[in-house]
Amino acid sequence: MYGQTVSSQQDHSSQLEQGGAPDDTVRSYIMAIGPRRYELHLTIPDIHCAGCIQKIEGALRYHEGVEFARLNFSTRRLLLRWTGDKIFGRQAIEILHRLGYAPRPYDPQSLIDADKAAQRQLLTAIGVAGFAAGNIMLLSTALWTTDAQTMGGAMRDFMHWVSALIAVPCIAFAGQTFFRSALDALRARRTNMDVPIAVGLILTTGMSLFELLTHGEHAYFDSAIMLLFFLLVGRYLDLRARASARSAARELLSVMTGTVTIIRGKEQRTILARELAPHDIVLCAMGERVAGDSIVIAGHGNIDNSLVTGESLPVSVDVGDTLLAGALNIGGPLTLRTITAPGDSQVAEMVRLIETAEQSQARYIRLADRIARLYTPFVHAMAFLACAGWTLFGHAPWQDALLIATTVLIITCPCALALAVPVVQVLAVGALMKRGIMVRGGDVLEKMAEIDTVIFDKTGTLTAGRPVLCHADAIAPATGAQAAALAQHSRHPLCRALAQAYPAAGSVKDVVEYPGMGLTGTIDGQPARLGHPSWVLGHAVTDAGGMEMAFIIGKQTPVKFAFHDELRADAPDVVAALRVRGLAVMIFSGDNTPAVQSVAAQLGITTFRSQMSPAEKCDALKRLQDQGHRVLMVGDGINDAPVLSAAYASLSPASGMAIACNAAGSVFNGDRLAPVLTILDTAKAAQKLVWQNLAMTALYNMVAIPVAFGGLVTPMIAAIAMSASSLSVTLNAFRLRGIK
Amino acid sequence: MSILLFVIPLALVLGGIGLAAFIWSLRDGQYDDLEGAARRILLEDENEKS
């Protein structure tokens, strides 16, 4: 009755491999850029070497109609352009799947393109500032090493003039970032790091021009431009340490768009998913997602709830069962009555939770900015004191006093401060990237260093997320091989696990798959059945949570296969190591209690909660964070996305749902749990170096300010001080490799 | 020291050429994928099928 030949299952099975992304989703990412010309952006996180570039580009580039297929290794993104049919986009994804990669389409607008433009603009500014600094330095060396008497006043003035001609336009151009930012802050009646920088630059240049026009001895064009150069470098590094930000909420929403088929009166109509209202009757075909929470009124089959609960094992449904919005129909057609509109569904609730969390995250102030808040008024006060002091107590003419005040501003130059933090963070983020851990930005590292509690999700995070056959030795290998031969014809996760457990042996014919039940076929001439124990044996069997299959061949006794979700290989060691570091470890899972209990027992975790909904997870997290704990959340499913957004720091395995990866502050590749330790240790090491750098900056200022107060600072001393402090801070950052 | 009147502008022009080259390479997108560029040198050129 409901038997379907195997080939028709291939379509939705590849969807399962893609993590449940239906055709609609891929199609919506393909952009038309001309008549029959299309463009698709894909992110491919598991690229790791030059061979990958060759494989991927080689496979795509020579297809008919492909205009452009280039892989950006640094960002792990592929841009594909082709002429022809829109369906090639999905074919390209299939090709990449067969090569062993897991590409995901993304919307390039949702990524910060502004980041790339800002990087370009900064690099241009660095180029200009570097050019100006180098050339002015040519002249300055002459000025530093002699004095006016040897050189002659006219020569000195000439050099000052040329310096000015180079410096002024270059500072005006390259300093735009700082001037604009300072202006914006002042308009909002705040100060930020850029205000003293802008003030310092303008004052230095102005004062130098004044000196120039009055045939003064010292002009500080070189200090101004060098200051600008170092600051721009610091700013650029800061930007490089940041990966692009995506709104996790928006991505979740995009899965829920599309159309649904409803029956109103006697006729079928197609409406937008968001227009669905309670009591609407929906026809849900195979491969479609349920848009609003509904109840089944006709049909039976299987659904994939991974979007909602994170569990990817199909659940069988029958008349009277409730389906949650986001469930994917992978069985026969179902007729549903809508209970809640999509906007009120649990998925929509999750979107709201994520959005709230993302807003509160925006309030975190980075360490560098916190220090800047102290630094800015301090520096201004110092300069003012110098000016006032010299005028009142030193009885100096106001020009000299102003000169000294300006040198105070120059010498306390924030370039070491601007470099102190980003230079360490960029190295740390780069080192982590090489080990397969992607960090969203420097602030993520800062937060990771303060963690005192780690919360794990269970399925897919602590476990590999794939069923594995257990007690294989209790089953005769020959039987196992035959079962595997039959299992190869289905994409059901349990069948895949069985096919991996035994080498298939035996010729199999006439395979028929019954969705949600199992397979029948003829192996070596004998009829065989493989699948759900109740279906295979013909009578109800107590089920251990859906992780069992029965196999009958010919007249032999039926054989039972049991599966469990295996822990990640190093999970016990990692949990033990976390506890050694003094961190509290917990499990928050949506799965049933016995499963969570057994995993917790295996890992030695005493605090665990089971059967939690996303809202419950968020509440529990909030309670912990209100108590003052700094929590790291590690999770991979859609139902973890709200918690990942709300936690102080968050980490997601790359094998998880795309939405979890977007919501998390960092993502790790591979099937080991060790990256959790790596990122925590690296963050601590980086933070230590950051404090060292800040201490060096403070020390340097403590020495430099009295020197400036004494009026002893000349352009040469200012230049040396600036370079020395910046260099020492940078060199200290390279110690990151040694500390870990 | 009148040579300086020649040499200093010359230095500026040469530096300017370097700057222009840098900005061109930046606009050309050569800095967008530094890691990929590092890896691509290891690839062998295959016969480009047109």
Give an overview in words.
The complex is a heterodimer of chains A (740) and B (50). Chain A has 740 residues and is of the alpha+beta class. Chain A has 29 helices and 28 strands. Chain A has a seven-stranded antiparallel beta sheet. In chain A, helix 11 packs antiparallel against helix 13. Chain B has 50 residues and is mostly helical. Chain B has two helices and no strands. The longest helix of chain B is centred in the N-terminal third of the chain and has 24 residues, at 4-27. The N and C termini of chain B lie far apart (61 Å). The relative contact order of chain B is 0.07. At the A-B interface, helix 3, helix 5 and helix 7 of A face helix 1 and helix 2 of B.
Summary of the model, kept short:
The complex is a heterodimer of chains A (740) and B (50). By secondary structure, chain A is an alpha+beta fold.
Q: Over all CA atoms, what is the radius of gyration of chain A? A: 32 Å
Structural class of chain A: alpha+beta
Label the overall shape of chain A: elongated
Question: Quaternary status of these chains?
Answer: heterodimer
Helix run count of chain B: 2
Mean pLDDT of chain B: 83
Number of helices of chain A: 29
Q: Which structural category fits the helices and strands of chain B? A: mainly alpha
- Percentage of residues assigned to helices of chain A: 40-55%
Provide the succession of SSEs of chain B: HH
Biggest beta-sheet profile of chain A: 7 strands, antiparallel
For the largest beta-sheet of chain B, the strand count, sense and barrel status come to: none
The portion of residues forming beta strands of chain A comes to 15-25%
Using DSSP, what is the number of strands of chain A? 28
Number of strands of chain B: 0
Helix coverage percent of chain B? 55-70%
Cα gyration radius of chain B (Å) = 19 Å
What's the end-to-end separation of chain B, in Å?
61 Å
Largest interface (CB within 8 Å) is between: A-B, 27 and 25 residues
Shape, per Cα inertia axes of chain B: elongated
